[in-house]
Design a protein that fits this description.
The protein has about 400 residues and is α/β, with parallel strands linked by helices. It has 2 domains: about 100 residues, no CATH class; about 260 residues, 3-Layer(aba) Sandwich (Rossmann fold). The chain is about 45% helix and about 20% strand. The protein is built from 14 helices and 14 strands. It has a 9-stranded mixed β-sheet with strand order 1-2-3-5-4-6-7-13-14, sandwiched between helices. The protein has a 3-stranded antiparallel β-sheet with strand order 8-9-10. Helix 1 runs antiparallel to helix 2. It starts with a helix and ends with a helix.
Length: about 400
């Protein structure tokens, strides 16, 4: 019923959204003599804020068509190299005749499946493209996957990672951004135990919930206080009939987004207030930057109920991985089996989702990785998103990541 009410609200807002869009177009149009006046800009700004407030944000595109390397612009093509019911594996392929003479490392970037689309990593991809052959997991909105495709849980997630690493072959580096840190570590542990020839050269875990008992955040405490049954009763709904995934049980993206916004409501309200004044003042650069962020931030996807509940239970309530009880298809995951895959962990000083020490805990679990194959970095002055995006990430983290991959390539 909750999902149906949400869809009804979206449908009811559609005429208002259309009217606001047309009005904004009228007041901002160059042929309107009032467009350049203070009154015209004020009206256009008001209508644009209203249009954005009532808009249904869809999955954005990566839109990466080129990369600059050594002062030379090289064409990039987004190619799908593997299609699964719940994920596509993307390759940002550099043009054949323009590729660097020296082969670049393969980097599998595992995007979070936590409510946002993989395009949240657009800046991460752009920053690392000059230095690597980048592949990205493009998770598919669960409401778009028909019931006939079956279920998708944490075991399936790990299976997908194992298949992708097998496809990319040996000498691949794998990067997990936030949520996938646990399944990526589990996949590497499983591959290490069976001496898989496709074992990654290194794994880079960024702002991930390896052990949420350490410096628990509001998100961690919320899960612990309620328990998995509370989430089953209150957070799981069925997809309405107007979507391909009709009747699939999901944790809807709009609920996740509501939780994210509620955590920092004042900041989001202030950001939209600033956006309004930037539009009134005609400051297109600042307005564009804020709009780009919220176009991405407000675009959300549904997660399958089984994946969401299993993740909440195993990662945030039972702490199965650090407790040594995490399993995959009945097989216990043993991080001490990892000996030949280098480990880099990254945390943000102001991260309010994954607290300081939660990702670094991977080093304690992977106790048999030699000391010279480990790196930990605490990025000062950044929150959760600053761990993998933004100017400080590009300036300070990218060189470290590139050096780390370069030091562990054999």
């Amino acid at each position: 019923m909750l999902y149906h009410l949400y869809e009804l609200n979206q449908a009811a807002a559609a005429p208002l959204n259309a009217a606001a869009g047309l009005s904004q177009f009228f007041w901002a149009h160059p042929s309107n003599p009032l467009a350049a006046t203070a009154w015209g800009r004020t009206m256009a700004a008001s209508m644009e804020i209203m249009e954005r407030t009532t808009r249904r944000f869809r999955r954005p595109e990566f839109g990466i068509t080129s990369v600059t390397m050594n002062g030379r612009k090289i064409a990039v093509t987004e190619t799908v190299i593997l299609t699964k019911p719940f994920c596509r594996l993307l390759h940002f392929r550099k043009a054949e005749g323009q590729r660097p003479l020296k082969p670049q490392p393969k980097l599998l970037m595992v995007a979070p499946m936590s409510g946002h689309f993989a395009t949240l990593l657009r800046g991460t991809v752009e920053a690392l493209l000059p230095h690597a052959e980048v592949y990205v997991t493009d998770w598919i909105d669960a409401r778009e996957v028909p019931l006939s495709e079956g279920s998708f849980d944490l075991d399936d997630y790990i299976d997908y990672l194992l298949e992708m690493l097998a496809l990319l072959g040996p000498k691949t580096h794998v990067m997990a951004v936030c949520q996938p840190s646990v399944p990526v570590l589990a996949a590497v542990a499983l591959m290490s135990k069976r001496k898989d020839a496709n074992l990654p050269q290194s794994m880079i875990l960024m702002g991930g919930p390896i052990d949420t008992r350490i410096n628990p955040t509001a998100v961690n405490r919320y899960a612990m206080e309620r328990g998995v049954e509370w989430f089953r009763r209150n957070a799981i709904v069925s997809v309405p009939f107007m979507h391909p995934g009709y009747q699939r049980d999901v944790y809807p993206g709009f609920m996740q987004l509501t939780g994210f916004v509620a955590m920092n409501l004042d900041r989001h309200v202030d950001a939209h207030r600033q956006l309004y004044w930037h539009l009134v003042e005609g400051n297109k650069a600042k307005a564009s930057k804020q709009k780009e962020f919220y176009d991405e931030y407000l675009s959300v996807m549904d997660l399958t109920a089984e994946f969401y509940l299993q993740t909440v239970d195993q990662v945030f309530i039972r702490h199965a991985l650090p407790n040594g009880t995490f399993t995959h298809r009945g097989q216990t995951v043993d991080p001490t089996a990892i000996r030949k895959c280098a480990l880099m962990t990254v945390e943000g000083e102001r991260d309010d989702i994954s607290g300081i020490g939660q990702t670094q805990a991977a080093h304690g679990l992977c106790s048999n990785i030699p000391a010279d194959m480990r790196v930990h970095h605490l990025q000062e002055g950044v929150g959760h998103f600053g761990v993998f995006s933004g100017s400080r990430f590009q300036r300070e983290m990218v060189p470290r990541i590139v050096d780390f991959m370069g030091n562990h390539k054999n």
